[in-house]
Give the backbone structure.
Amino acid sequence: MTTASKLWAVEPETAAAGADAAPGAAAAVSIRHARRTYTADLAPVRALRGIDLDVASGEFVAVTGPSGCGKSTLLNVIAGLDTLDEGTIEVDGQRVDGRDEDWLATFRRHHIGIVFQFFNLLDGVSALDNLVLPGVLGGMRRRAAEARARDLLDLLGLGDRAAQIPAVLSGGQRQRLAIARALVNEPTLLLADEPTGALDTAGGQEILELFRRLHAGGQTIVLVTHSPEVAAGAARQVRLRDGLIEADSAVPSDPDAPDTSRERQDTDAVSAELAPGAV
Protein backbone atom coordinates (compact mmCIF):
# COMPACT_ATOMS: atom_id res chain seq x y z
CA MET A 1 0.00 0.00 0.00
CA THR A 2 1.43 3.39 -0.99
CA THR A 3 1.67 6.28 1.43
CA ALA A 4 -1.13 8.13 -0.33
CA SER A 5 -3.41 5.09 -0.33
CA LYS A 6 -3.01 4.86 3.46
CA LEU A 7 -4.47 8.34 3.92
CA TRP A 8 -8.07 7.56 4.63
CA ALA A 9 -7.35 4.17 6.21
CA VAL A 10 -6.02 6.04 9.25
CA GLU A 11 -8.46 6.70 12.06
CA PRO A 12 -8.95 10.43 12.81
CA GLU A 13 -7.66 10.03 16.38
CA THR A 14 -4.48 8.36 15.10
CA ALA A 15 -4.01 11.05 12.48
CA ALA A 16 -4.35 13.80 15.06
CA ALA A 17 -1.78 12.19 17.30
CA GLY A 18 0.57 11.36 14.45
CA ALA A 19 3.15 8.60 14.27
CA ASP A 20 6.49 8.99 16.00
CA ALA A 21 9.58 8.07 14.02
CA ALA A 22 10.83 4.61 14.92
CA PRO A 23 13.78 4.58 17.35
CA GLY A 24 16.99 4.51 15.35
CA ALA A 25 15.18 5.34 12.09
CA ALA A 26 17.49 6.36 9.27
CA ALA A 27 17.76 10.07 8.61
CA ALA A 28 15.64 11.24 5.68
CA VAL A 29 17.47 14.59 5.94
CA SER A 30 20.89 15.25 7.44
CA ILE A 31 22.33 18.78 7.51
CA ARG A 32 25.76 19.71 8.81
CA HIS A 33 27.23 23.20 9.34
CA ALA A 34 24.87 24.77 6.79
CA ARG A 35 25.68 28.39 6.00
CA ARG A 36 24.06 30.67 3.44
CA THR A 37 24.75 34.39 3.04
CA TYR A 38 23.08 36.69 0.54
CA THR A 39 24.58 39.90 -0.80
CA ALA A 40 22.48 42.96 0.00
CA ASP A 41 22.90 46.68 -0.66
CA LEU A 42 23.82 47.72 2.87
CA ALA A 43 25.16 44.57 4.49
CA PRO A 44 25.34 40.80 3.89
CA VAL A 45 22.28 38.84 5.01
CA ARG A 46 23.35 35.69 6.87
CA ALA A 47 20.28 33.53 6.37
CA LEU A 48 21.84 30.34 7.77
CA ARG A 49 24.72 30.57 10.24
CA GLY A 50 25.88 26.98 10.72
CA ILE A 51 22.82 24.77 11.18
CA ASP A 52 23.00 21.08 12.11
CA LEU A 53 19.72 19.18 11.75
CA ASP A 54 18.58 15.58 11.30
CA VAL A 55 15.05 14.56 10.31
CA ALA A 56 14.33 10.86 10.74
CA SER A 57 12.37 8.89 8.20
CA GLY A 58 8.67 9.18 9.07
CA GLU A 59 8.98 12.39 11.13
CA PHE A 60 6.68 15.39 10.80
CA VAL A 61 8.73 18.49 11.59
CA ALA A 62 7.44 22.08 11.68
CA VAL A 63 10.07 24.78 11.21
CA THR A 64 8.98 28.01 12.88
CA GLY A 65 10.39 31.42 13.75
CA PRO A 66 10.00 35.12 12.92
CA SER A 67 10.20 36.50 9.40
CA GLY A 68 13.75 36.59 8.12
CA CYS A 69 15.02 33.87 10.46
CA GLY A 70 16.02 31.50 7.64
CA LYS A 71 13.00 29.15 7.46
CA SER A 72 12.39 29.32 3.72
CA THR A 73 16.11 29.34 2.98
CA LEU A 74 16.46 26.10 4.95
CA LEU A 75 13.64 24.51 2.95
CA ASN A 76 15.09 25.72 -0.34
CA VAL A 77 18.58 24.33 0.31
CA ILE A 78 17.11 20.96 1.33
CA ALA A 79 15.21 20.90 -1.97
CA GLY A 80 18.24 21.97 -3.97
CA LEU A 81 16.46 25.16 -5.08
CA ASP A 82 19.22 27.21 -3.42
CA THR A 83 22.89 26.51 -2.73
CA LEU A 84 24.97 26.49 0.44
CA ASP A 85 28.09 28.57 0.91
CA GLU A 86 29.39 25.98 3.38
CA GLY A 87 28.20 22.69 4.83
CA THR A 88 26.55 19.52 3.57
CA ILE A 89 23.00 18.25 3.02
CA GLU A 90 21.93 14.65 2.52
CA VAL A 91 18.42 13.59 1.52
CA ASP A 92 17.62 9.88 1.58
CA GLY A 93 21.33 9.14 1.97
CA GLN A 94 22.45 11.18 -1.06
CA ARG A 95 24.36 14.46 -1.00
CA VAL A 96 22.37 17.24 -2.68
CA ASP A 97 24.80 20.10 -2.06
CA GLY A 98 27.19 20.85 -4.91
CA ARG A 99 25.10 19.04 -7.55
CA ASP A 100 24.29 20.45 -10.98
CA GLU A 101 20.77 21.49 -11.98
CA ASP A 102 20.07 18.45 -14.16
CA TRP A 103 20.95 16.05 -11.34
CA LEU A 104 18.87 18.02 -8.85
CA ALA A 105 15.83 18.16 -11.14
CA THR A 106 15.93 14.38 -11.61
CA PHE A 107 16.46 13.78 -7.90
CA ARG A 108 13.53 16.03 -6.94
CA ARG A 109 11.19 14.21 -9.33
CA HIS A 110 11.81 10.91 -7.56
CA HIS A 111 12.58 11.84 -3.95
CA ILE A 112 11.15 15.27 -3.02
CA GLY A 113 7.61 16.62 -3.25
CA ILE A 114 7.18 20.38 -2.73
CA VAL A 115 4.04 22.24 -1.69
CA PHE A 116 4.12 26.03 -2.07
CA GLN A 117 2.08 28.71 -0.33
CA PHE A 118 0.61 30.00 -3.58
CA PHE A 119 0.06 26.56 -5.17
CA ASN A 120 2.26 27.00 -8.32
CA LEU A 121 -0.22 25.04 -10.41
CA LEU A 122 -0.47 25.08 -14.21
CA ASP A 123 -3.47 27.36 -14.68
CA GLY A 124 -4.12 26.50 -18.32
CA VAL A 125 -4.59 22.74 -17.90
CA SER A 126 -7.00 20.56 -15.97
CA ALA A 127 -6.55 19.35 -12.43
CA LEU A 128 -5.93 15.87 -13.83
CA ASP A 129 -3.16 17.04 -16.16
CA ASN A 130 -1.53 19.01 -13.33
CA LEU A 131 -0.87 15.58 -11.80
CA VAL A 132 -0.24 13.57 -14.96
CA LEU A 133 2.59 15.82 -16.18
CA PRO A 134 4.94 15.31 -13.19
CA GLY A 135 4.19 11.58 -13.34
CA VAL A 136 5.23 11.38 -16.97
CA LEU A 137 8.32 13.48 -16.29
CA GLY A 138 9.11 11.10 -13.44
CA GLY A 139 9.18 8.15 -15.85
CA MET A 140 5.60 6.81 -15.76
CA ARG A 141 3.75 5.85 -18.92
CA ARG A 142 0.86 8.17 -19.68
CA ARG A 143 -1.80 5.57 -18.76
CA ALA A 144 -0.12 4.75 -15.43
CA ALA A 145 0.34 8.43 -14.62
CA GLU A 146 -3.33 9.11 -15.34
CA ALA A 147 -4.42 6.20 -13.13
CA ARG A 148 -2.19 7.44 -10.31
CA ALA A 149 -3.53 10.98 -10.75
CA ARG A 150 -7.16 9.85 -10.60
CA ASP A 151 -6.48 7.79 -7.47
CA LEU A 152 -4.94 10.82 -5.75
CA LEU A 153 -7.75 13.13 -6.82
CA ASP A 154 -10.28 10.67 -5.41
CA LEU A 155 -8.35 10.28 -2.15
CA LEU A 156 -8.10 14.03 -1.66
CA GLY A 157 -11.77 14.66 -2.45
CA LEU A 158 -11.18 16.14 -5.89
CA GLY A 159 -12.36 13.28 -8.07
CA ASP A 160 -15.28 15.31 -9.42
CA ARG A 161 -12.92 18.22 -10.26
CA ALA A 162 -10.55 16.31 -12.54
CA ALA A 163 -11.58 18.17 -15.71
CA GLN A 164 -11.64 21.63 -14.14
CA ILE A 165 -8.79 24.13 -14.32
CA PRO A 166 -7.30 25.42 -11.04
CA ALA A 167 -8.76 28.91 -11.46
CA VAL A 168 -12.30 27.68 -10.75
CA LEU A 169 -11.30 25.79 -7.59
CA SER A 170 -11.40 27.20 -4.06
CA GLY A 171 -8.17 27.98 -2.23
CA GLY A 172 -8.43 24.81 -0.16
CA GLN A 173 -9.11 22.71 -3.26
CA ARG A 174 -6.13 24.22 -5.08
CA GLN A 175 -3.85 23.45 -2.14
CA ARG A 176 -5.17 19.88 -1.99
CA LEU A 177 -4.42 19.64 -5.72
CA ALA A 178 -0.90 20.98 -5.08
CA ILE A 179 -0.38 18.34 -2.37
CA ALA A 180 -1.65 15.63 -4.72
CA ARG A 181 0.83 16.81 -7.36
CA ALA A 182 3.65 16.62 -4.80
CA LEU A 183 2.68 12.99 -4.02
CA VAL A 184 2.44 11.72 -7.60
CA ASN A 185 5.92 10.19 -7.66
CA GLU A 186 5.70 8.90 -4.05
CA PRO A 187 8.50 11.10 -2.68
CA THR A 188 10.76 10.16 0.20
CA LEU A 189 10.37 13.68 1.58
CA LEU A 190 7.49 16.14 1.45
CA LEU A 191 8.43 19.81 1.88
CA ALA A 192 5.79 22.49 2.46
CA ASP A 193 6.41 26.25 2.58
CA GLU A 194 3.58 28.04 4.45
CA PRO A 195 0.97 25.68 2.93
CA THR A 196 -1.91 27.29 4.86
CA GLY A 197 -0.73 30.88 4.47
CA ALA A 198 -3.06 31.72 1.58
CA LEU A 199 -6.10 29.97 3.07
CA ASP A 200 -8.86 30.91 5.48
CA THR A 201 -9.13 29.19 8.87
CA ALA A 202 -11.36 26.37 7.65
CA GLY A 203 -9.16 25.72 4.62
CA GLY A 204 -6.04 25.77 6.78
CA GLN A 205 -7.49 23.21 9.19
CA GLU A 206 -8.43 20.98 6.27
CA ILE A 207 -4.86 21.05 4.93
CA LEU A 208 -3.39 20.46 8.40
CA GLU A 209 -5.59 17.39 8.83
CA LEU A 210 -4.35 16.11 5.48
CA PHE A 211 -0.73 16.49 6.58
CA ARG A 212 -1.54 14.65 9.82
CA ARG A 213 -2.99 11.76 7.86
CA LEU A 214 0.02 11.66 5.56
CA HIS A 215 2.34 11.60 8.57
CA ALA A 216 0.32 8.84 10.24
CA GLY A 217 0.69 6.88 6.99
CA GLY A 218 4.49 7.12 7.22
CA GLN A 219 5.29 10.18 5.09
CA THR A 220 8.31 12.26 6.12
CA ILE A 221 7.28 15.94 6.20
CA VAL A 222 9.18 19.17 6.81
CA LEU A 223 6.81 22.13 6.95
CA VAL A 224 7.60 25.85 7.33
CA THR A 225 4.95 27.93 9.07
CA HIS A 226 4.31 31.13 11.01
CA SER A 227 1.16 29.62 12.54
CA PRO A 228 1.37 28.19 16.08
CA GLU A 229 -1.77 26.15 15.35
CA VAL A 230 -0.21 24.54 12.28
CA ALA A 231 3.09 23.93 14.09
CA ALA A 232 1.23 22.24 16.94
CA GLY A 233 -0.06 19.66 14.46
CA ALA A 234 3.49 18.39 13.83
CA ALA A 235 5.29 15.86 16.00
CA ARG A 236 8.37 18.06 16.39
CA GLN A 237 9.02 21.80 16.24
CA VAL A 238 12.33 23.37 15.25
CA ARG A 239 12.43 27.10 15.95
CA LEU A 240 14.91 29.31 14.10
CA ARG A 241 16.13 32.77 15.01
CA ASP A 242 18.77 34.77 13.14
CA GLY A 243 19.79 31.78 11.04
CA LEU A 244 20.37 29.43 13.99
CA ILE A 245 18.31 26.75 15.74
CA GLU A 246 16.95 28.39 18.89
CA ALA A 247 14.88 25.42 20.07
CA ASP A 248 14.15 21.86 18.97
CA SER A 249 11.35 20.08 20.82
CA ALA A 250 8.95 17.18 20.48
CA VAL A 251 5.25 18.02 20.56
CA PRO A 252 3.50 15.77 23.11
CA SER A 253 0.51 13.93 21.67
CA ASP A 254 -0.85 13.88 25.22
CA PRO A 255 -1.17 17.40 26.70
CA ASP A 256 -0.32 15.92 30.15
CA ALA A 257 2.86 14.26 28.85
CA PRO A 258 6.18 15.57 30.20
CA ASP A 259 8.03 18.20 28.17
CA THR A 260 10.79 16.64 26.08
CA SER A 261 12.29 19.90 24.89
CA ARG A 262 15.80 19.78 23.51
CA GLU A 263 16.19 23.54 23.65
CA ARG A 264 19.61 24.87 22.74
CA GLN A 265 21.28 26.46 25.77
CA ASP A 266 24.76 27.23 24.42
CA THR A 267 24.46 31.00 24.64
CA ASP A 268 28.17 31.58 24.09
CA ALA A 269 28.13 29.71 20.79
CA VAL A 270 25.06 31.60 19.59
CA SER A 271 26.59 34.92 20.63
CA ALA A 272 29.75 34.08 18.72
CA GLU A 273 27.72 33.30 15.60
CA LEU A 274 25.88 36.63 15.89
CA ALA A 275 29.01 38.68 16.52
CA PRO A 276 29.77 41.41 13.95
CA GLY A 277 31.70 39.95 11.04
CA ALA A 278 30.80 36.34 11.85
CA VAL A 279 29.74 34.37 8.79
The CA atoms of residues 30 and 54 lie 5 Å apart. The beta strands are 27-38, 45-56, 60-64, 86-91, 94-95, 112-115, 189-193, 220-224, 236-241, 244-250.
